[in-house]
Amino acid sequence: MKIIIAADSFKGSCSTLEVAAAIEKGIRKIKEDVEIVKLPVADGGEGTVDALVLGTGGTYETVEVIGPLGKKVEARFGILEGNIAVIEMASASGLPLLKEDELDPLKATTYGTGQLIKAAMDKGCKKIFLGIGGSATNDGGVGMAQSLGVSFKDRDGAEIGYGGGELSRIADIDISKLDQRITRTEIIVMSDVTNPLCGEKGASYVYGPQKGATTEMIKQLDANLKHFAKVINEKLGKDVLQIPGSGAAGGLGAGLIAFCNVELHAGVEKILDLICIDGHLENADLVFTGEGRIDHQSVFGKVPVGVAKRAAKRNVPVIAIVGSIGDGAAEVYAHGLTAIQDIITKPMTLQEAMENAQILIEQAAETVMRVITIKSDTQFIGIHRKEHELA
Q1: Is Protein biosynthesis one of the keywords UniProt gives this record (predicted)?
Q2: Architecture of domain 2-41+283-390
Q3: What is the pLDDT of residues 130-168, one digit of tens each?
């Protein structure tokens, strides 16, 4: 029996590797002799670097950068075979770097993300995979561009400061000192969202609240991004306002399109290709996947559905182990998922669930395997193998 484990991290509690290890423990409590292949997976957010470095045998580099609120932080990126860099903006400009009472999208900057891009180019990397999930920012990528040499001046000729609250001051954009290595570097952006830059479905209205934005701040941030897009169009001749994905990471998608000539891709699909999941799925009998919460949004580029779609092409059943099940979760069944098992077994607080996530994940995997053995190994696997042979 061959089982693939390809799960996302449980944000705030378990990394993708810890989730996979817990699932493996639960499986082996029931079946010790199964072949298990663990594949780190992510969707462009937290865990992307680990997924690709560990999944492909890469190495890590650590650099000091400017964090979301201007303080210096250590950020890590990966270098894969062929001198390809993999960066996750969250390590330099992300929510995990701030406490809840520190969140402030009016001040948060993507400057450190630009420094990571520069560090990768300093290492000679001509190709960069950039995951942009988990941002604490709403600055349209202005900070990122500033760190790469772009100047944003107000009507008095002064450089604007950090954060989404400064964008309304932009009167001119000077790209004459943009690091020219950017023009020779292929940057592939991995994102799990397709939101436009502005409006009710844009960066500020949809993701502003989780970054600490109040109702009034959201209106201000949205208006500022709209002004930013207008100046980009006037000065650079690029219309970034309605491009799908331009609203990703508080508008970082728009900034990358405007100043780095990037390609936007579904994060999970790129990562699944890079870890060669299709090859691992050959002759697999069962797949375990998972994420912290599964709901109607999971069909839009999240790991469990991305994995399930690949497995469905080979008639391999997929079980998702999740922290919680939200509204509309049943929609995922139409995309290849066979079943969902949450980890909560009794009433408990969110804090308790997060602190005990690994043991709860292990117990959930054990429960799934017990149900499977009720059917008997020969019946469950035999039916699948017959379908696989006929496919």
Answers
A1: no
A2: 3-Layer(aba) Sandwich (3.40)
A3: 999 889 999 999 999 999 999 999 999 999 999 999 999
